[in-house]
Every structure is written in structure tokens, then in C-alpha cells.
Amino acid sequence: MKVLEEDIQNIKGIGPKKAAFFATLGIKTIEDTLVNYPRDYEHLGVPCLISSIKEGMVFLCLEWEDSSRVSWIKRGFSTTRRIGRDQTGTVECIWYNQPYRARQYESRKKYYIMGNAVKKLSGYQVQNPKVEVYDDTIHSKPRILPVYPLTKGLNQRIVRHLTKEALSKLSSEIGNKSAADHYIDNIDRHITSRYGLVNKYEAWKNIHYPESKESLVSAQKRLIFEELLQHQIVIQYIRNNIQGRKSSMHISGSQDSKDAFLCRLPFKLTFAQKKVLNEVLLDIASGSIMNRLVQGDVGSGKTVIAAAALYCAAKSGYQGAMMAPTEILARQHFESLSKILADDNCSQNDIRLGLLTGAMRSSEKEELKDRLRKGSIQIVLGTHALIQEDVEFHKLGLVITDEQHRFGVRQRTLLQNKGELPHMLVMSATPIPRTLAHIIHGDLDLSTIDTLPPGRIPIKTYHVNSSYRERIYRFVKKHALEGSQTYVVCPLVEESEVMELRSAEEVFLELSKGLLREIPMGLLHGRQKPAEKEAVINSFARGELQVLVSTTVIEVGIDVPNAVIMIIENAERFGLSQLHQLRGRVGRGDKAFYCILVSDIKDEKTLQRMEVLVKSNNGFEIAEKDLELRGPGELFGLRQHGMPVFQLANPLRDYELYEMTGEAAREILNDPNKEPYHSFIMNALGKQYDVS
């Protein structure tokens, strides 16, 4: 529908200046306006009489008495008072620091007043009320008004005006169509007729300006259905067109290959690791394309599963690629796999590995890309550099992404597209409750490593306030003098004028010039150049630095068995799952390990979250609690990492609708004549796939 593509500047009152403010919220067109859903609602009641006022929110119809009074209590602080009346009495209204109110209203004219009533000795007082000219057609019945997200230069009145005008434009466009064709598009017609939901125009109208609570619920249900349907289209399309398709890449998972790999390991696999490894090897030898997620707690041993799969791919004549979110992690994987897969005693059995990151010299990158093209490198480890357009493979059979919450479907697909539909293995150290995993990763089969290797020592976790800080760092100094190492994690790189949070630079300077001045220390954060970061990490890994002050850049990819203490400043700023990931940087040796959460926040929810970490070392338990306390969007950072982003839907709350949309997606994609839904399908897929 063309009207949806119109620029908002076609609406009266929206000029270039206001349009620029709206653009910062991603609102440029009529459709952008209509999908900018309210974050909340104001429920406005019908006016009551002054004689029936009670404390709390009140709605009144008043006429003002003649005079108002402005009092300047001190420089920069004023009160404005005015008396309003109805047929049952009078009431005082007061505004703070709004002296213009004294000149704003006419006497003997009716106004609709909404504000907080407080009982005083002299009677009730309505504080900071909002005021509108009374209109019996509007104010004589209850109303529900939208409350929108705002940015600099915008207020609720301006956003409401734009939304009303956008709805009016759409209404005019639909009004010109026949009654049987009051639909936005073909998918709107299908959803409305097939599932008995309101059409999209009615849904948009009632989510912005609901006529009743019932109409709001109906609108939300219709729009949630479409959100979930888009997600299900992506999942079903991937399952239909990639996963399970016949593959010419038969990667041998024979007992001989598996045994040859396991003989290289200096340890025995746990029962859970053996089970997951068998699932992976059966997939890649099955003749169908594998799309599998392996999830496990921090330190559960996922990397060895990846190494085994890469080994089998190389032994079957294929190349394997493993992509990590950071150079630190990519390099660590390269070093650990080099130790496992290199065979000094038998050169013909050597597996040739390569490392590709953005920080490498151009000549090094070009040489490695050439060797990949020719097939002389069998396994490559790398960062996002692997998905650059000029990276080509000779015979790519297996792709692996590590720390999958850092990658979206698009990035995984770009890597997979480097070959002729190679097998895909996705790894995550962020445990996800099974129900939510089914929703977020419905395109992937799921394997779970649900036990840790034997002998792991639980990390002792403490939650303290900042008054313990000197004691904490004396504890760090004692351990440093005994030869152990410590991480100190801060939420910011540098000091902020806006937020009272500890920054890495501030803490580093404070400690290196104070309590820990005799202890070798390092500073690590994301703004440093790659070479500088690598030098700091290597120094810490070699034991040359005993305290590393860092941001969350160390959340993944640093494995230092001698590190025994993790201190997290302003712990309230992190989610439970992220805190558990950070805590997992220690606990990799055979000593006693400590995690100290420093936070002065005393609200009940923060205390609950800290208590969960103090009591449990189990990542799956922690993820369940985090989900309960914060919801799926915040728990997994969906907006940041390419996972499904829902404006209205909560797949756990709306699970019945989620299952219904699964059936709907299958019906649409299996329809031989799906041309009417082509644009909807393409939009859902983000134009990543060819669905012609």
C-alpha cells in the first residue's frame, strides 16, 4: 500500500526539524509511525465531583476562579496556585516551577483536570495537574491514551499528533477500497480470514488509540500473531531449504577416525560429551546437511566437540572453518587446536591449520586466503574476517560458530555460503532453558552438555558493598604475593559524567598507585588497538601481570588456570547470565576460586539476582532464574546479537500463539501458489535467501 511508504513530512506540522528528531527513533515513513507501538498507556477517567475526591489520581471538570498566585520560594524555584470549582465546592491546584500556568487559562471556562490529589489541613490539593479544555464528546467517557518512547525534541503531544494523522491517511486510503478489500496486503487478508483476527488497520488503530481494554487485547493479539509468524517463516524456511537437505559431503564419523582423535587428548570425555559428539558425528555422516546447536555451561568442554568434528572433516578431504566473535578467542582456539591436531611424530597425518583475523598484516591475510583457495589449509580459525567477500574455500565441508549469541542468522549464513551448503555447528556457553532454545533457535537441532568434567572446584561467590573495597584488594594483594592472578571487571572504559559507575581506567589508576602499586598490573578494553590488547592478554597468560583490570572484553576467550579471583565492580549493571560467564574466567585449575560481586544497589530485584549467583554455580539454573527475573529479551540481548527481536510478542507468554503460527508458516510455505505472500516471506527472511 503506497500510503505506507509516504514520508512523514507529508503530514501537516512535521517539517524537516521534527522529521530529523523522529529519524533518531527510526521513524521516517507512515509505516514506521504505525509500527512505533506505545510503551505504555494512560488510563483517563470521567470527571468526578470535588465533593467525592479521594487521595490519588483524580479527574475533574473545573472552572477557574479569577486570580492565580505565583510564589518564588527561592531563586529558580516557584509555585503557582489556582482555585478551581464545580457545583459541589472548590479545590486548589498547584504547579511547581511552572509560572506560565498563571496566564494560561481563562476564567469561567470548563477544563478537564487530571492530577494527584493530596490531603492537606485546608482540604485536598491537586499537584502538577495536566489540563485540557473540556469537551463533552471526549471527556465524558473513559479514554486510553498511548505513551510513546521519546527523544530530544519530541513530546507525547507531537508523537500522538503524528500517529493520529498517519492513521487518518491510512483510513482515507482504505476508505477508497471496496468493503471486501479493507486489507493492508495479502498476508493481512490471509491472517484475518483464516484465523478470525481483526485486520491490520483495526489492529494499528486500536493499539494506538484503543476504544476499550478488549479492543486493545484484540489488536495486540493480531500484531503479535504477525510478529511470531515472521519468525516462524524464517525457521520453517531454513528447515525446508537447508537443514535436512541431501548433502554430497559425507564426513566420516567412523570409529577409526573418532578413536584416532580421542587418542590425541590428554583426558577422557565425560558421558555428556560422548553423547553430544555421537550426535554431531552421526549428523555429518548421515548424508543430510547438519544444522545443530551445542550448548553447555562454562567449562563443560564444547571446544573438544568442535575439534573432533573439524578433525573428521579434514580426514574426509574437506575444509573446516570456525568463527569466533573476538580475536582473543579465535587465537586461543587456534593454539588449543594446534596442540590437539598437530602430530610431530607422523608428518603425513598433520592437520594444517590457519588463523585469519582483521588485525593481521595484509600480506599475511593474502597468503592465507590463497592457501584456503588452493586447499592447502584444512582448518581455519578466525573472526568476522572469515565472512569477507574475498575469502574463498577449495572444498568447505563444515562451518562452526562459537559463542553463537554474538552472531545472527545472517552472519552464520554468510559463512555457510562460502561452500556448497556445508554442515553447520553452532556452539554456545550461555545455557538457554529448553523451551526458549526451541523458540530462539528453532532452525537448529539441539544438543546439551549438561555436566562438567570431574574434579571441577565450585567457585565461592560473595556479594558485598563498596565499604569492603579496601579489604577486597588486600585479599587480592595477598594472593598476588603468593603467585596467583586476579581479574577486575568494570562496566565502563573511562569515567562518565552521566553515570556514577566504576571505569576500568579509573580503577586501574587507583589500584596501581595505591594498594596494588607493588603488583604488576594490566589494563584491557575494547578501545585499545588489537596489538595492544594481544600484548596485555599474552602478558597476563604468561603470568607477567598478576592483576588484569578490564571491561567485559574478557567475557569470552581468556583461559588462565592461575587466575583464582574475579572481582566485578557495579555488578548490578550486568545480567545474571553475563555475570556467570565472567565468573567462568576463573575456576580452571585445582586451587580455591573466588568471585566477588561489588554493588551498593539495595533494591529487591538486584539483591535477588546477586543471591542467585552466590548460591549457584549451575549455568542452567541461573539462566532459568534470569529468565524469570528479566525476561527473554534482556536475558539474551536479542537486539544486539541478531536473534529474534519482538516488539510486542513474548514467546513464552504467547506460546499458544507461537505454536499456531508454526502451523500457519508451514501452510504458507507449502502452498504451491505462494506468490501472494512473496513480499511477506522476503521481508521475514531479511532478503537473505532465494525463495523463488
Question: Can you characterise this structure?
Answer:
This protein has 692 residues and is α/β, with parallel strands linked by helices. The chain folds into 5 domains: 1-45 and 142-180, no CATH class; 49-141, Nucleic acid-binding proteins (OB fold (Dihydrolipoamide Acetyltransferase, E2P)), CATH 2.40.50; 183-241 and 654-692, no CATH class; 255-449, P-loop containing nucleotide triphosphate hydrolases (Rossmann fold), CATH 3.40.50; 460-616, P-loop containing nucleotide triphosphate hydrolases (Rossmann fold, 3-Layer(aba) Sandwich), CATH 3.40.50.300.
Cα-to-Cα separation, first versus last residue = 22 Å
Largest sheet: 7 strands, parallel
Shape: globular
Task: Output the structural class.
Answer: alpha/beta
Give the number of domains: 5
Mean pLDDT across all amino acids = 87
Helix tally?
A: 23
Q: CATH topology of the largest domain, which one?
A: Rossmann fold
Strand content: 15-25%
Low-pLDDT sequence parts: 635-642, 687-692
Q: What is the tally of beta strands? A: 20
- Helicity level, as a percent range? 25-40%
Rg value: 31 Å
CATH second-level architecture of the largest domain: 3-Layer(aba) Sandwich
SSE arrangement:
Elements: H1 16-23, H2 30-34, E1 40-44, E2 56-74, E3 77-86, E4 89-96, E5 110-120, E6 123-133, H3 136-139, E7 143-147, H4 156-175, H5 186-195, H6 200-208, H7 213-241, H8 255-262, H9 271-284, E8 291-296, H10 303-315, E9 319-323, H11 327-341, E10 353-356, H12 362-374, E11 379-382, E12 396-401, H13 409-416, E13 423-428, H14 434-440, E14 445-449, E15 460-464, H15 469-481, E16 485-489, H16 504-512, E17 521-524, H17 530-541, E18 547-550, E19 563-569, H18 576-583, E20 594-598, H19 604-615, H20 619-630, H21 632-636, H22 655-670, H23 678-685
Helix pairs in contact: 4-6, 6-7, 7-22, 7-23, 8-10, 9-10, 19-20
